[in-house]
Amino acid sequence: QLPTGLYKKVLVILHDSVLPYMNEPTLMMDFLTVAYGIGGAISLLALNGLFILIHQHNLEYPDFYKKLYSLLDPSIYHVKYRARFFHLTDLFLSSSHLPAYLVAAFIKRLSRLALTAPPESLLMIIPFICNLFRRHPACKVLVHRPGGPGDMSEDPYIMEAEEPSESRALESSLWEIQSLQNHYHPDVAKAAAVLNQSLSEMEDDISGLLELSGYELFDREVKKKAIDVPLEFEQIRGLFGKKNDIFAEHFSLD
């Protein structure tokens, strides 16, 4: 057992400063799988090392996607390691051999959590979800379900289910993204409206959006050129500006 702070320091550098220089990186399998099971930020940081062992050293982790699915909670859009987590999640969900129910469960959970996410996270996660639809066309039933969410008395998706296969995500509809089309931030509303159209075959590049911060978003808005908006108004008369007001007869603003 390591202190939490030391766990984080080790896992941050393990994938690029330790594993490449080991004669037998597979010796780290137990350490990384235990770290992955701890939860929270430690699990997020263990993903990098696990990714190397799975792809380069044939590590088999039967409940890997179940654990990855359980890591999706409201804090995922706010944590310090958000960019690293979504970069790896994008890689893990890139295989076309994944079952549709699994990808649909990830799409629904990410969409549900997006309802309370900040704008900078939404501008990243909406293209992320669009890319999942491009890779897995069978999941498009979530968007193009006949009748849409209006015909559903309740959402069949079970958010609390630990197993993606038991979440009933494929029976649901993506009303969460439809809700984001009325978001207060115009860029988010515009990004969410893309799902109303047929998606292009080329995937969106999300690498530049992974580390987008609220400060950058605000700075971008401030630097936009202001557009002069013509206004039509009636010149104010009297003290309270009402027509036929008794005050207008006796008081003047001149």
Kindly describe this structure:
- Keywords: Membrane, Transmembrane, Transmembrane helix.
- Residues 43-192 form the CCAAT-binding factor domain.
- Helix 2 packs antiparallel against helix 3 (40-56).
- This protein has a domain at 99-231.
- The chain has eleven helices and no strands.
- The longest helix is centred in the N-terminal third of the chain and has 17 residues, at 40-56.
- The protein has helices at 4-18, 29-38, 40-56, 64-70, 82-92, 100-114, 119-135, 175-180, 186-192, 214-222, 246-250.
- By secondary structure, the protein is mainly alpha-helical.
- Helices cover 47% and strands 0% of the residues.
Structure class: mainly alpha
**Which outline best applies?**
elongated
Strand percentage, roughly? under 5%
**What is the element string, with H for helices and E for strands?**
HHHHHHHHHHH
Write the layout of secondary structure elements.
Elements: H1 4-18, H2 29-38, H3 40-56, H4 64-70, H5 82-92, H6 100-114, H7 119-135, H8 175-180, H9 186-192, H10 214-222, H11 246-250
InterPro entries: CCAAT-binding_factor (IPR005612), Noc4 (IPR027193)
GO biological process, one term: ribosome biogenesis
Transmembrane segments: 31-54, 85-107
Short description:
The chain is mainly alpha-helical and 254 residues long. It has helices at 4-18, 29-38, 40-56, 64-70, 82-92, 100-114, 119-135, 175-180, 186-192, 214-222, 246-250.
